[in-house]
């Protein structure tokens, strides 16, 4: 018989007063990461869930934050815990939580500005940032999906609102966000083209893309024909921005992951940098709307429980999966970050908890 949620929550909160966690006390290389055995577990708010972590994936945001990206926001709050994705079991719930219960396997992702991340064996997430884990996936497989998939979901579903029969271009389809976007578009009934490295072509075509162009070996602007309804640019350099916008139909959407809000805030401080970033984005929106007749936007991951539920359904249907290239135990978090920094492992890396 399942223990009533409220009683189980109160008991669990008494049991989990401390946990292991990887702390970031200062910005720098992988050597600054510190695994501590006794880090305080804060009391749960009414809408929060305590998750016993089984696996957490490393995202590019993690390595960039470790190196100092977002320091204007995070430096005053050091030490912080990195990590966004998690897969594990519910250990305790806040008083208002109803969608999950003690012992249930769940997966999810924290929003980009969370200070207490998931590199801990007891992660805390709001109820609207987790959902039951697809039973067909292991914890390692599930942990690789939420943050990247929600980033792609926000771009294609919330911003561009793609529909069946449209043509979608993903610039950089070999990464986790790009690969998730390809699978979303295919599942929606869209025709998909992408650019990628040669090592990703076979996997991308198997996922349903109609064309995968090796951006090193081929001239992308010659190889890809026609116009597109939406372009998701996961690379976001001036050359890919120019190319992506030129590939769009009038009325189409160009979305880049490389917005300038954090970099401008780091350079000029929050008070000046964030308003300046909004001005930069607005100027580009106006310019491209008048010069090309398209919509331009910076896209970021945001919590979206409806999107996360749809992601779970696609996973369960076998229509969404992000491959994991290598796993490390949490005790080797420095080695894992070093491997990502040196680009020794091109795909997803996951940290496992014993």
UniProtKB/TrEMBL annotation:
Domain of life: Eukaryota
Annotated InterPro entries: ADH-like_N (IPR013154), ER (IPR020843), GroES-like_sf (IPR011032), Lipid_raft_assoc_Zn_ADH (IPR052585), NAD(P)-bd_dom_sf (IPR036291)
Domain called Enoyl reductase (ER): residue spans: 28-351
Protein name as catalogued: Enoyl reductase (ER) domain-containing protein
